[in-house]
């Protein structure tokens, strides 16, 4: 998009009260950090909005330096980035402010702990391959379960400017809490008493979550999803799945009537300008 259009949309969003602005930056399109720097759109210390860049796998050293200069966080979603052939994740890139996220639930799990597990495994695999290429063996990995757990909780909250509201358990913060039960699966239960954080990152599944509170309200209780009320009616997971199934069918019908060649050309023009 032309610079004036980007600036117009940006300032329109800020005028509407938007506090968090995100943008992808990966193996597609021009550099987002360079564009934001050129257009002077990064927040200043007194501004009330936050920018978070997503992915960033193909960023160069200049991009890294821009993010470091403006202290702009990078949100990493390792599973999605692997599915999209975007390269190694940058969650533990030195000098960058990073946070862990879950993305594209049509392709990958929506579980943050699954994302944490994936991030840790990929980081260890990356180091192993680097050492193997040198004919060496890894004697110690750099990141721990605690490191990646923090990337999914307090550091993620800090990345979006909400560390005073969420991300950890403290008086005055929102009660966003997941409660795990140790006796739902053997591997998780056996390790939870010894090292609970490592057990959550390494072994936990949805069945191990006994309860979930969002801002103090139960969304899962006694191992079951809590029904929600919409227009005075109780709605359970069965109804949500029914509506989701119908939505998928509607999307398929609309897709069949689309000219996909035009869409492919548009995508190519964004990813590889001048080669569409």
TrEMBL record:
The keyword Plastid does not apply. Residues 47-216 form the Amidohydrolase-related domain. Coiled coil: none annotated. It comes from the Eukaryota. Transmembrane segments: none annotated. Its cofactor is Zn(2+). Keywords: Hydrolase, Metal-binding, Zinc. The keyword Nucleotide-binding does not apply. GO terms for molecular function: deaminase activity; metal ion binding. One of its GO terms (cellular component) is cytosol. This is Amidohydrolase-related domain-containing protein.
């Amino acid at each position: 998009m032309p610079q004036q259009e980007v600036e117009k949309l940006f300032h329109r969003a800020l005028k509407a009260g938007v506090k968090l602005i995100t943008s992808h930056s990966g193996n597609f399109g021009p550099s987002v950090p360079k564009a934001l720097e050129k257009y002077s759109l990064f927040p200043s210390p007194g501004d009330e909005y936050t920018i978070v860049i997503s992915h960033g796998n193909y960023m160069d050293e200049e991009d890294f330096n821009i993010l470091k200069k403006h202290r702009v966080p990078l949100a990493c979603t390792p599973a999605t980035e692997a599915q999209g052939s975007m390269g190694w994740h940058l969650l533990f890139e030195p000098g960058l402010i990073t946070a862990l996220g879950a993305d594209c639930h049509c392709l990958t799990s929506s579980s943050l702990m699954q994302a944490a597990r994936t991030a840790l495994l990929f980081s260890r695999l990356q180091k192993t391959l680097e050492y193997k290429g040198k004919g060496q063996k890894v004697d110690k990995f750099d990141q721990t379960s605690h490191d990646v757990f923090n990337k999914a909780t307090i550091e993620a909250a800090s990345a979006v400017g909400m560390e005073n509201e969420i991300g950890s358990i403290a008086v005055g913060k929102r009660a966003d809490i997941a409660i795990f039960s140790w006796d739902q699966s053997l591997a998780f239960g056996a390790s939870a008493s010894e090292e609970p954080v490592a057990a959550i990152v390494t072994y936990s599944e949805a069945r191990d979550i006994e309860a979930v509170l969002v801002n103090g309200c139960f969304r899962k209780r006694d191992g079951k999803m809590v029904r929600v009320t919409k227009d005075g009616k109780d709605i359970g997971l069965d109804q949500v799945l029914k509506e989701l199934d119908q939505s998928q069918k509607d999307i398929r019908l609309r897709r069949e009537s689309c000219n996909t060649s035009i869409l492919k050309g548009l995508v190519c023009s964004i990813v590889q300008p001048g080669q569409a």
